[in-house]
Every structure is written in C-alpha cells, then in structure tokens.
Amino acid sequence: MGMVVGTEAPILFLGIFRFLGWPATSWGLRPPELQGAPGAAEQPVPRRGRGCAVMITAEAAAESAVHTAPEAEAATGAPKLEEPVWPWKDAPIRALVQRIYQLQAERAQAFRRLEEGHRQYLRSGPPYDFPYYRSKVHEVTRSFAAASREVLAVEAELAGPRAQPLLAGHVRSLQQLEQTRLATVALLQLMGSPELTEQENTLQIRQLKMKVIKTMDAISEVLQDLRFDAEFAE
User: Fold this and answer.
1) Mean pLDDT within 70-93
2) Quick one: which of 110, 87, 108 has its CA closest to 99?
3) b/e string for 123-140 if b means 16 or more Cβ within 10 A?
4) 29 has which bridge partners?
5) What is the 3-state secondary structure (H, E, C) of 149-215?
6) Does the global pTM surpass 0.90?
7) What is the pLDDT of residues 184-196, one digit of tens each?
C-alpha cells in the first residue's frame, strides 16, 4: 500500500515526477487531490492554500515537453518547440562530448542546490519556510529541463548528421540515468519532509540512498565510455 500524501511538499514533488513523465502511482504516492481514472489521476484539484504548489506541478508538466519525441508531437497535435541554434552544431565531435561534460557539471550544481534547499527547509521550522523550498525546487526543475533539452539535441545530432550511433547510445543512457537519479533524490526528499515523518520507512530510505549511489556509479561509467569511444570517432 502506497504512502498517502496530502500537503504542499508532496504535491510539489509530484511536479518533478510529471516533469520526468512518470505517474505518481508508480512511486506508491496516492495524494487525495488525485482522483478518477488513470488518465485523469495526474491532474491535481486545487485546494485552499495550495495554489502555488499546483502551479509548480502544472509548470513542470509543461516543461516535460522537452522529452516529447517528434512522432508523439505529430500524433497528439502538440506544438513543436522551436529548436535553438546550438553553438556546437557544426563543431567537431569532441566539442559535443565536451558539452555533455559541461551539462553534467551543471546538473551536479543543480543537485547541490536542491539538497541545500531541502536542508534549509528542514532547519527552518516549525513553522517551515515552504515558499523558499518551493522556489528552490522550481529553480532546479527549470535547470534540469534546460539541460535535458540540450542533451537530447546532442543525442539527435550524433545519431543523425554525425552518424555516430554508439556515442548517441551513450548520451541516451546518460539521460535515462539522470532521470532516475532525479526521481530517486526527489522521492528521498519527499519521504524526509516533515509532513511524512510518521510514515518514515527506514529500510526504503536506505534502499533509495543505495540506488542513488549505484546510479551515480553508472553515470560515471557511461561518461568514461563516451570519452573513450569519442576518441575513435573522428
């Protein structure tokens, strides 16, 4: 049986899960605001005092369009995002790989901001400074959306014009691992929020922490493979 959640912090983290394209039910979260059939289960019903949290959820869902494949856009009629003119578009492959490493550094900084924001939140109360924490999650979600969009653009460049399917596969694996890492960290912070202290599951928290460590190890391995294989691509 999943955790029953119904306060601002849990709803805020549902925004991250929406950003990743994963339904809350896949993580065992059953907020009272999410009712109805599976297709409608991800639409929060606003309650008094929760408008901002619902707004974050909606915005994160909009940002998740970065993960939408062109075929899905055509099938659903969703508007296609205008592709930026990337500075690495005509650069050598090693420049694309270097950009991936730079984006990974930006993601690492975003994770540090998220963790620091959560620590500040826990130290702030009671009463807890939720607006500060909400703004930090909002900021980090935007950072991840921007990084993901560019990573996917690099993958498409490697898979298409550069004809480097091996390198593109590494970048795709990296993106998937980062999604797993973000969702796991978000769930850890959700379970550590003051609203859920009575439902704390020590074993599950330990398992999630181990999953973060293993995911980070896998990310390091993929980055090493990417750098090694890129040396033979040109």
Assistant:
1) 69
2) 87
3) eeeeebebeebbebbbeb
4) 3
5) HHHHHHHHHHHCCCCCHHHHHHHHHHHHHHHHHHHHHHHHHHHCCHHHHHHCCHHHHHHHHHHHHHH
6) no
7) 998 888 888 776 6
